[in-house]
Amino acid sequence: MHPTFASLSLAHLRTLDCLLQLKNLSHAAERLGCSQSALSRQLASLREAFDDPLLVRQGRGYVLSEHAEALVEPLRQVLEELNALRQPAAFDPARCERRFCLAASDYVAEHMLPQLVKALEQEAPGVSLEYRTWQAGQYALLASGEIDLATTLFDESPPNLHGRLLGEDRAVCLMRHDHPLSARAELSQDDYLAFKHVRVSGGGDKDSFIDRHLRAQGLQRRISLEVPFFSAMVQVLGNGQALATVPEHIARQLARLHGLSWRPMGFIDHTQRYWVVWHQRLQASAEHRWLRNRVFEVWRQSQFGVQGGHAPSP
Q: pLDDT tens across 104-143, in order?
């Protein structure tokens, strides 16, 4: 029997939240610990209860309906508030003296972390932070407690993690402002392979999708330098003809700040999702909930973030 809107349970709402966040039935089923067929039946029930398709098939994936888009943040807030009801005591950030470990890229550290530190100084002066450079796939450090919170991007949801979606982006090619390819409207695969590449290893997995795409054709790009920091990559690009594959919102900001250029890649279409993620063992922690909500808010509001980093095309 399908639920009516009035009879939706907390489990229904959590399932809906997971579906709206991931927009992928197999990934959502894995996170929820159920079969894909069972999740398909739950989606059918939710569609009937909301009288809306919610997830609309597009190509091999799904996009959110207009109504579903409007549900994402209110639903997240409702679930956060319901989780807060289970906490034994009210949390006062002004009294918190906990040390947290955050991990992301040096781009986040340089352009967004100062905003977070300013907010914490005002709201929670007793809180201290350790900041690390996140390396792709370091999820075991979240499980062990060595890292409390990370900002990263991934295609498939790792097990035992919770997260909030910051936004979506695509990868583009960054280069010096007078690079031979800067006159192109977009780059072809031959353009892309004609020059050496600098790869930034720090932060999430930004570019392995393109290496998989090339390997499938028996091709590979020439990576002449791999560095953990965007700041080092910027200097190298400005002094030569190498290319770097980076998220568009970062490319826009680095081009503006350092006089570089960026161009889209016409030979591949790949969407990247940015998340704030934590291990499930911290899901019910009032202190951690407060921190992750503040990080999410600061990252979302920053002009350097995936939401705020878009400007008119070059």
A: 999 999 999 999 999 999 999 999 999 999 988 888 999 8
The end-to-end CA distance of the chain, in Å, is 53
Beta bridge partner(s), residue 292: none
26-62: b (≥16 Cβ within 10 Å) or e: ebbbbbbeeeeeebeebbebbbebbeebbbeeeeeeb
Q: Hey, is 67 helix, strand or coil?
A: helix
Which positions of the chain have pLDDT values less than 50? 1, 310-314
CA 276: distance to chain centroid? 6
* Residues 6 or more apart in contact with residue 92 via CB below 8 angstroms: none
Rounded to whole angstroms, the Cα distance separating 151 from 166 reads 9
Q: Give the count of beta carbons closer than 10 Å to the beta carbon of residue 182.
A: 15
Q: Is the torsion defined by CA of 119, 300, 246, 18 positive or negative?
A: positive
Q: How many helices and strands, by DSSP H and E, does the chain display? A: 12, 11
Q: Letter for the amino acid at 118?
A: K
Predicted pLDDT at 2: 58
- Structure token digits, residue 87: 């906490």
Helix spans in the chain (H): 10-22, 25-32, 36-50, 66-84, 106-111, 113-123, 139-144, 189-193, 208-215, 230-238, 248-258, 286-301
